[in-house]
TrEMBL record:
GO molecular function terms attached to this record: tRNA-uridine aminocarboxypropyltransferase activity
Protein name per its UniProtKB record: tRNA-uridine aminocarboxypropyltransferase
GO BP term (any one): tRNA processing
Assigned keywords, A-Z: S-adenosyl-L-methionine, Transferase, tRNA processing
Signal peptide (residue range): none
Pfam families for the chain: DTW
Protein family: Belongs to the TDD superfamily. DTWD2 family.
Organism: Pollutimonas nitritireducens
Amino acid sequence: MNPEPRSSVLPSRPRCKRCLRPKSHCLCTHLSKIANRTRVLILQHPSESRHALNTGRLAALGLQRSQVLVGEHFPTLGAIVAESTLVFLLFPGENAIAPQPLEDRSDSNTALLIVPDGTWRKARKILYANPILATLPRLCLENGAPSSYRLRQTREPAAVSTIEAVVRTLSRLEPDQDFSSVLTPFNVLIEQQIQAMGREVYRQNYGGLHTAGDSDLRFD
């Protein structure tokens, strides 16, 4: 009787159920839980949810009022939008404006920031699949500090990761709150990945281009 062939597929490493990172590289000790008045809803494309460098999830984990929905079409989106008196879509466009402070605290407590999370093509697919998004006022980021996202190549110097886009937008909407600690696990994640590949490999692969988020959005 012939023995059963061994599987060539290596068993996956145990993962943290919260941050979804391998338990040996869990980021939960670096997570904050900042009190944001503006609720954040991240519409994440399925391909992005499976990516090792999933910064949208980290953004949501670092905020008290946040939610991630994974998919392309979101049937409950209309009801979610109807619950808020002030709704913004973080996505560049002809009529997009830079975020301004929400002076009225009652407005900010019921405000909703919707953030598509995926490559340009995937993010646009989310917009087309959910027509209600086209009716919302758009926000875009002014050119600011370069992205810290050093592991995804882009030729667009203004490109930033999803977590950076969320933090920069909330910092403008709620200037009285410090959101910088939301970025801590993101920075740790980048360092973990660089150490895993080795500094020399990192320099060879990422030294020639600006590195930000090819899966994340450029906000002009």
